[in-house]
C-alpha cells in the first residue's frame, strides 16, 4: 500500500476514534469483519486452531490473538495505548457565569500542552452508563459536532499571556458550551438522536476532544498533523499488521516446524495517567489472557511460563523528534527525525525497556523488512517519560523493546508526525507477526 493511502486511512481512523472507548469499539469492528470471535473474561473459552479471538476490559482496553494451526510455544505481542491527554468531564458538570454563560466542570487527564486547547472547536465523547431492564448497560457516545470551546482571555486583560503564564485548570480551561438562564442538561444534549432516554443515565465517562480533522502538509507533503497521533498511529499500524498476519496464517493448512508463534495484539487504556488501573498495562489483563490461552492449549502453568519466557513484546509508543527550533533539547548523538523510520527507545534507568539484545532483534527485523531505524535517548540532564514496556513487564516477564515513530508537539491537541513513518511501522510489525521468533541466548529463526 502506498504511503499516502496509509496516511489517509490513519487520518480517518483517528477522526472516528475520539476516546479510548471509540478506539476499542472500532478495533472490535475491524476484528469481527476479519472473522474474529469475541470472548468474555467471565465465561469459559473454547479456542479453535486457525481462528482469531478478542477480549475487552472496561470497554477501553482490548487484547486479540490468533490460535495457530500447528505448534504453539511462544507469544509475539505488540502493545500500544488507546488513550490521549484530554479533559475529563466531572459529575454535575454544569457551571453558570452570572446566569448567562454555560460552562462544563472538567479536570485534566494526562499531561497535555494546555495552550494548544484554546480557541479551537471541541466536542464530547466517551460512554454513558444507562439503566436498562434492571441492569446497567454501557453506551458509546460521540456528540460528533462542534459543541464547545475554551476561549482565551484577550491579551488586553492578560498582558502576561506571552511571558510564561501558568494556566489554572479550574478557572482558565473550562469549556464554554452554551448560553441561557434556564436549566441545562448535558445528557439531554448527548442523547439527542440516540435511542437512549437521558433520564436513565446513571453515570458517565466523558472527555473533551479536538474536532479538527488531520491533514497532510509541507513543501512535498512530508508531514501529517492530527489529534491523538500519540498513540493511535501505532494502534492503527499494529491492527493492520495483526490482521495481515492472521490472514496469511489462515491460508496455511498446517504451520510447519517445532516452533510456532501466537500473535497477540494488546491495546491498553490509561497509559497517560500511569496505567495503574484494571484495564491498564499495570494490571493483570495481559498476564490473564496469556494464561488462558495456555489453558486453551491444554498446557499446565509451568508450560505456560516456558511459553512466556520464549516470547517477545514490542511496546509501540511514539518518540520525540529532533525539534527544528530547539535542537539543543535532543541528545547530542541520538537525534531521531520525522520520516527517519522506526525509533528504538533506550533509557539507562529502564523507563524504556530496550536493552542491547532486544534492540538487536528490532534492528535485524528492520533490516529484513527494508525499514530504516534510528535510536532515541533523553539528554542526560532532561528526564523523560515512560511507556508500556517496563510497566507490562512487571506482570509478564519476557524479552521486550520500546519503539515508536518520531513526532513533534507530543501531548498537544494537534500533533505532527511523518507521512512515511506509519508505513515503516506497518512493514516492521507485519514481519514481526509473520515470523516465528524463539528467544533464548541468541536470536533464533
Low-pLDDT segments, ≥5 res: 441-445
Distance between the termini: 27 Å
Number of strands: 21
Bin the helical content: 10-25%
CATH class of the largest domain: Alpha Beta
Provide a count of the helices.
9
Radius of gyration based on Cα positions:
23 Å
Number of structural units classed as domains: 2
CATH superfamily of the largest domain: Zn peptidases
Question: What is the residue-averaged pLDDT?
Answer: 93
Q: How would you sum up the global shape?
A: globular
CATH topology of the largest domain: Aminopeptidase
Question: Can you put this structure into words, describing what you see?
Answer:
This protein is α/β, with parallel strands linked by helices and 445 residues long. It has two domains: 3-84 and 227-444, Aminopeptidase (3-Layer(aba) Sandwich); 86-213, Roll (Aminopeptidase i, Domain 2). Helices cover 25% and strands 28% of the residues. It contains nine helices and 21 strands. The chain has helices at residues 3-15, 20-33, 186-191, 229-251, 285-296, 301-309, 356-369, 388-392, 421-434; strands at residues 37-39, 52-57, 61-66, 74-81, 86-97, 101-109, 122-132, 135-142, 176-179, 201-210, 215-217, 223-226, 261-268, 312-316, 319-320, 342-345, 373-376, 399-408, 415-418, 438-439, 443-444. Strands 1, 2, 3, 4, 11, 12, 13, 14, 15, 16, 17, 18 and 19 form a 13-stranded mixed beta sheet that branches. Strands 5-6-9 form a three-stranded antiparallel beta sheet, with no helix packed on it. A three-stranded antiparallel beta sheet has the order 8-7-10.
